[in-house]
Amino acid sequence: TTFAAGAFGGRPQRYLFQLFVDDGLRSEPEPVVVDVAPTGPAVQDATIPLVPGFNLIALPVDPGGSYRVSNLLADSRANFVAWVQEGQSRMRVLARGFLAFDEPVAGNHGYLVAGVRGSANLSLAGVPWSEASLTRTLGSGLNLVAYPRGAPSGSTAATLATTSGASFIIRSDVGPGGRGRLVTYLPGLTS
């Protein structure tokens, strides 16, 4: 007998079903319980600290295909989330009450999460991003780049500007009063 189970998010799950046997004796169906444990990547919990103001974030785990930018907006308690689709230079914005550009989150997207009410932790559960979701084609103009597994060792704004060919880099930082702010790096002018 073969059974097919749908995606269950990488967590163990119990299935209960009725087994019918066509034995010619009109046997009663029997209840069957099957425990299924995933053999793929283990589910990991991730926490992203958020501060009031601006936060440029990467999602360290893949929360699954049903997790959308609208979920990120709600879970972060932000006023809006902005991102740039791969290969394009236009920013998309999803704001409370205006959900026109909702789409699944991606590992190679950086997200600008703004208007968070007080300091908060964004908690996510998921599996590691696939290798394919860790590369990004940069378009001319604005790009929000993410390092979901953390920045490479020794990486700086200068090395990112050099490898990407960018004329400037913007990162988020916590400023006076604990508010998130955007800081600009200009090659040859700032450090």
Structural write-up:
The chain is mainly β and 191 residues long. It has helices spanning 69-76, 157-164, and strands at residues 13-19, 30-36, 44-50, 54-57, 80-84, 91-95, 111-114, 120-126, 169-174, 180-185. It is elongated and about 85 Å long. The termini are far apart. The mean pLDDT is 85.
Concise account of the structure shown:
This protein has 191 residues and is mostly beta strands. Helices cover 8% and strands 30% of the residues. The chain contains two helices and ten strands.
Distance between the termini: 64 Å
Order of helices and strands: EEEEHEEEEHEE
* Biggest beta sheet summary: 4 strands, antiparallel
SS field, number of helical segments: 2
Gyration radius (Cα, Å) is: 22 Å
Percentage beta strand: 25-35%
The helical percent reads under 10%
Low-confidence residue ranges: none
Strand order of the largest sheet: 4-7-5-6
Could you report the average pLDDT, rounded to the nearest whole number? Answer: 85
Tell me the number of strands: 10
Shape: elongated
- Which structural class matches the secondary elements? mainly beta
Which helices and strands occur, and which strands form pairs?
Elements (H helix, E strand, L loop, with lengths): L12 E7 L10 E7 L7 E7 L3 E4 L11 H8 L3 E5 L6 E5 L15 E4 L5 E7 L30 H8 L4 E6 L5 E6 L6
Antiparallel strand pairs: 1-2, 3-8, 4-7, 5-6, 5-7, 9-10
